[in-house]
């Protein structure tokens, strides 16, 4: 799912860069890691790799502040930022991590994006460091801090904005047909029936891109089986695809498709070319399950709709399901991780604390992002849409669990075939039971 920010809007580079580059993460060379300075805290300048998009200005300011700070002086070190073009990022990071010139600190997406490095013992386990440091322990929303880790251990510190998946709706259409946002699945199905009777497609869906389809399964598995089902899968237990919640979610998706909830041509509609947002904004579909960047997308393409008619609500609960309606799926944020062989661990850890600062959060808000810091809510009046910003923040703040987007959470070698199987389910080339069998076979 999308990741990067540009003047409050979203670009699509993360989707493509991970698909192309991250699958190479498991190739040979990872064990030959290490920054040029060797391990320890020997002082001097250390390197930070960052994804080089428009949002990088926040990290540039942070490093300038840090390098001039007492913390940098005490650690006897400064940070040099290396901005890597987005399309090259995963491949360049992989190559660098297998060389003598590996970065000391580097940007990542958590979950599967760092699993190969964790398995090769290339990352500092930050779990105990966070627990013993009040700035890091209390500085971030717990669900976000946890979401970037693996097997219950922390390997990253949040460093960009949150991007939960939200159900958006057309307020004018809902008012015209006397509908109110649902809190239960049965209420949602009742709304679907009323919309179809009025010849309105319930949901826009950019099926040509596949990843928008993934969002439906992510929420359904959570609401039916709870976050622990996917947590097992994320940590490498392929048999967990056989959990009854996965089959039930697939069956629910098939029911929605057969019932016309996404219309007839969703598999030829894309999100990335603006197709699905247009279907939604023009009133041809009443709702759209999408990442929080949908607001920025609509503001850019259909500003009147964004300002007057765009509403939002949480994904409904499912009767008898184990998942809390407050649980969230999506992209919690991006993370800084630290190379286990950094030449100045003290400087690297001191820099991570900068991400919990109020000034860092203010810079994110000014860039159109919603910070994941624990004290950010009071800053959101300065955001482009304070109402929407505060809804997102409270949604994540109150979430018992925040499930990282599946295609980012699983091993990169699993991500592409998983998306292929999801698409087969949505276009009717695979039954729910065949879908589960195929996923259980992914290693």
From TrEMBL:
Residues spanning the membrane: none
SUPFAM superfamilies: Periplasmic binding protein-like II (SSF53850)
Pfam families the UniProt entry points to: SBP_bac_1
InterPro entries: Bact_solute-bd_prot1, SBP
Name of the protein described by the UniProt record: Sugar-binding protein
Organism: Streptomyces brasiliensis
